[in-house]
Write a structure and sequence with these properties.
Layout: E1 2-9, H1 12-24, E2 31-43, E3 46-58
Antiparallel strand pairs: 1-3, 2-3
């Protein structure tokens, strides 16, 4: 069965750590793809970033 796991973090290093932790428990042959996205919002002179990733894998 093909499944997805979603990750959403405010800092890119946090996203990297979360995805790497998940991938550590996944066999190489089960990984299908990783989709990455960055969103940015400017609110009252402050830039807010959202780093997200979707891991597609075989369960």
């Amino acid at each position: 069965m093909i499944q997805i796991k979603m990750f959403d973090e405010e800092h890119e290093r946090d996203l990297e750590e979360a995805v790497n932790d998940f991938l550590g428990g996944l066999a190489d042959r089960d990984l299908i793809d990783i989709k990455y996205q960055v969103g940015c919002l400017i609110e009252e002179e402050e830039q807010i970033y959202c780093f997200s990733a979707m891991v597609i894998f075989r369960a």
